[in-house]
């Protein structure tokens, strides 16, 4: 799931890779298998949407992928909550787990045949396990970013989740190569690896803009709720954009600017820093280039 701008409708889009795999499956005569996979993907995404709406979000757009989907939700970026993100992201894999249990019950009751139940369980377990990989844009990557954002900062946590996606893609490609060497090539492994690598490459370009949007929302968000203080010690030559990568959600930041000897020159409060950051050219300026007399200048 991803945060997006406001919108009234909820257009549903289908990823080209999904259409390509559907065409291959239909050409191979796997029509009912395609129908099952499509239904499972839709239920997976509806679970995300249901939890997001329970938190008061509205859905802007839904894109169906071969192994899940991306639902862009409307919300205030500055008020982004790691806890809510975990619940929303976990809803899809949880739905797959529930569907697996339902299939086993229906098979035990002799309502579903062994072959159909086995296929249905395999589809759901594959989707659940793949989506739980700690890699953006997968659900596991969003959970990893949400959990680690309090420690590493929102921007840095996103970068780590994208880097993890490339490692996971490489691992899947290696497994695919291993199946080919063993004489039982698994094309799905390569498809998953390719999808993950392409998606991660695109998201890596978007991460700085998404982080900047979150920071701007933080700048505009009301400050009425109590927050834990998060101190950051940075060298005076460090650029403001680099410092901002370590800003964490649900925290109040105090930035201690140090000289070459590691001594504090001055301390900047969160709002002062954000004003500096979003001033013209602020992201590329060193924090030591603070305009005028630095605040809280030590004697």
From TrEMBL:
| Cell location | Membrane
Tell me where the transmembrane regions lie.
Answer: 17-43, 86-109, 115-136, 181-200
Superkingdom per UniProt: Bacteria
* GO cellular component term, pick one: membrane
The molecular function terms of the Gene Ontology recorded here are: metal ion binding; metallopeptidase activity
Which coenzyme or cofactor does it need?
A: Zn(2+)
Q: How does it sit in the membrane?
A: Multi-pass membrane protein
Protein name as it appears in the record: Peptidase M50 domain-containing protein
Q: The organism's lineage?
A: Bacteria, Bacillati, Bacillota, Bacilli, Bacillales
């Amino acid at each position: 799931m991803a945060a997006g701008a406001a919108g009234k409708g909820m257009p549903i889009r289908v990823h080209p890779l999904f259409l390509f795999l559907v065409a291959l499956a239909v050409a191979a005569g796997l029509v009912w298998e395609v129908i099952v996979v499509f239904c499972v993907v839709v239920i997976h995404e509806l679970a995300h949407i249901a939890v997001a709406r329970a938190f008061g979000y509205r859905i802007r757009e839904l894109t169906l992928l071969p192994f899940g989907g991306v639902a862009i939700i409307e919300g205030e970026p500055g008020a982004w909550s790691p806890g809510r993100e975990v619940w929303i992201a976990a809803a899809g894999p949880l739905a797959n787990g529930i569907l697996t249990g339902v299939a086993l019950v229906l098979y035990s009751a002799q309502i579903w045949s062994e072959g159909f139940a086995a296929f249905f369980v395999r589809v759901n377990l594959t989707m659940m396990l793949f989506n739980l990989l700690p890699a953006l844009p997968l659900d596991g990557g969003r959970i990893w970013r949400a959990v680690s954002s309090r420690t590493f900062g929102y921007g840095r946590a996103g970068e780590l989740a994208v880097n993890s996606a490339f490692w996971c893609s490489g691992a899947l490609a290696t497994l695919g190569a291993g199946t080919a060497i063993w004489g039982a090539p698994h094309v799905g492994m390569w498809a998953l690896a390719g999808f993950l690598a392409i998606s991660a490459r695109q998201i890596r370009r978007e991460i700085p803009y998404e982080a900047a949007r979150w920071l701007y929302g933080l700048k505009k968000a009301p400050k009425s709720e109590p927050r834990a203080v998060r101190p950051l010690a940075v060298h005076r030559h460090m650029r403001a954009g680099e410092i901002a990568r370590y800003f964490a959600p649900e925290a109040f930041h105090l930035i201690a600017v140090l000289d070459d000897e590691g001594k504090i020159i001055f301390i900047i409060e969160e709002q002062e820093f954000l004003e500096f950051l979003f001033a013209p050219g602020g992201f590329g300026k060193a924090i030591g280039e603070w305009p005028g007399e630095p605040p809280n200048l030590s004697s």
